[in-house]
Specification:
The protein is an alpha/beta fold and about 220 residues long. It is built from eight helices and five strands, in the order αααααββαβααββ. A five-stranded mixed beta sheet has the order 1-2-3-5-4.
């Protein structure tokens, strides 16, 4: 019996995706694709354009809570972290979290391993390594980080993140390049360490950049 080839229909495909997404959020079986007007679609587009900022903010706040707990910060220090996170605009020069009195700095990366897989793509990997380099070398807002504890918070997707971090922290071999940025990225891998449940506070030094998985807490 000859197999029938399914014909692709763009309207059917997009309708299925949009209605499925909104049904999951609203728990309503409404046909949003057919009922949304232009104004509503534009409003939805604007809202979704901020999703990455919302995700980054929530992850940064979760990481701030973890820092306060891990480093035994006072309630006032904890409140100050939350206050500074909320007052910082996206893409502001400086580190995502900076606890000046304790000399702690952190960058947050809401990066999802590519293709629903278990590794960071080249651009994702470079983004993490570039932030690690900045933590070591400093930024314009904080040019000297020598005495700071340096952290990178990575959104926690369980086994996927574990595997991706494992590959990220494995040094490359047979590097053949004269480009300084690529050489810096290669070198910084040797400075990466992973924080787990067994990591002790007195094991932290300012020489390394520490990776910590973080989940967004449920409301």
């Amino acid at each position: 019996m000859k197999k029938t080839t399914e014909i692709y229909d763009r309207t059917t495909e997009l309708k299925k995706k949009l209605n499925g997404f909104l049904k999951n959020l609203t728990k309503s079986d409404k046909d949003y694709y057919s009922t949304f007007n232009q104004s509503q679609l534009l409003d939805l587009k604007m809202a979704l354009s901020d999703v990455n900022n919302v995700l980054t903010l929530k992850t940064t706040l979760a990481f701030g809570h973890w820092i306060a707990d891990f480093f035994n910060l006072s309630n006032e220090e904890h409140k100050q972290i939350v206050k500074e996170i909320n007052e910082t605009k996206p893409n502001t020069n400086g580190f995502d979290i900076q606890v000046s009195k304790r000399k702690i700095i952190a960058e947050i990366k809401c990066i999802i391993p590519i293709n629903k897989g278990f590794y960071y793509g080249a651009a994702q990997r470079n983004s993490i390594l570039d932030d690690a380099i900045k933590l070591i070398k400093g930024k314009r807002a904080l040019p000297n980080t020598t005495k700071h504890i340096k952290l990178i918070g990575l959104i926690d997707l369980d086994e996927k993140t574990d595997k991706a971090i494992e590959k990220l922290t494995k040094p490359a071999i047979n590097i053949r390049t004269e480009k300084q940025l690529r050489l810096d990225r290669h070198d910084i891998v040797h400075k990466l360490r992973v924080i787990d449940n067994l990591t002790q506070l007195d094991e932290l030094t300012t020489e390394y950049v520490y990776l910590k998985k973080i989940k967004i807490a449920s409301a």
